[in-house]
Amino acid sequence: MMSTEEIRAEPKPVFKTASFYHNSKTNAKKRAWKSLKQIISTEKALPWPENVVHYSSINAPPSFKPAEKFSDLSGLPAPYTDPQTRLRFANKEEYATLIGLPMDITAGYLALRGASSIVG
Question: What does pTM read for this prediction?
Answer without folding.
Answer: 0.48
